Input
Amino acid sequence: ETATARVWLDRAAAAVPAHPVVARLRAELADAASDAGTAAAGWTAVASTSRRIDVRIDAHERARDALVARLAEAPLDRDALTELAHALDALGDAQARDEAIDRAADTARRAIAEGRLDDAPFRVLSCVAELCERPDAARLVDLAADAVAGRPADGAGLGTFACDPALDERLAPPAWAPSLRSLFATHGAALDVAFPVDPGALAATPLADEALASEVFELGAAFGLAGIECFVSATLGPHVVPLGSSPPRLALGASLAGAANAGARRFALLHALALVRAGASAVARAHDAEAGALVVERLADLAREADGLDEGRAQLAAVTPEALRAALTAWADRVALLATGQLADGLLCAVRASGHALAPSGAARATALSSCARARELTLFATSSAYADLRAAAGAVG
Output
């Protein structure tokens, strides 16, 4: 029995060296070997237990192999991922478990980035969060899936806390780097002078609605903007346009004034005010490559005339106007999402900005969202660990 026990235990230890039962059996072997009177009984018990472990290990290994093959065929199979994680837990293979979870998360996020916005990738990301013991993150993914599908998604935001510029480092995409943010903060007002917007050309008049003006001033104060000049125009559609930073000015589409548009209006206002504070109104208004290139060229000229902005100048030279504008848009969307918690409102603003309507549900909604890069980008952020971490740090739940 001694030799048999060693053989079975060695097999178990080779398969799962960190398994707690293996450690206990090694201790039992040592006890049995030190007591000649009970050695025979001890070796027999250890051999029997080790055989049972080996049988279970074999079953888990076969399950693991089958589940790996199943996921290779259907990478967004949430149930297979869950079962694989449990099988690897049973085998004590933490590294393989973590690798499988990371691989599944990457696959799901890539699917969303490519425009697959049915429930499957969201189910996988929710499962990943649960396996990582992040129920808060899983809840956010579930809310995102509901928002994308047009189902009720009652999320809560962080309010004006999200407008704190100290959060920019965690909200900004790489292309909206700190050096560029400094460059725009320094020269944004000069860009507004170089590329002015006449409210009259937009058929815009000063905002007279006191309740709406109060909302604008309240949100502006959260961004540290005082004395905001707000205009309203029937020609702008359901949009808010940043007009300048010094003084802070914006124009609001008259169709956003109604109560039915309250959520989308608040999201659009937060987005525009973030751009105003950043000094990036001129770039945000440049809706084609040629206009964007002119703004960036003028900013480069201004930067050459200033001292201490070498890093910003280098960063500006390394980014295309299109990439810069996309990064600005993504950053402002993230600020608004963190403040409101309402992905559905952000998706509506994104699709509207592309010149399309967003159906409340169904295939037409899915098509509009899948074809909108801004909507996909915002959805990715809404399902990210970065978003969950920011909310958790602020004490937000669900």
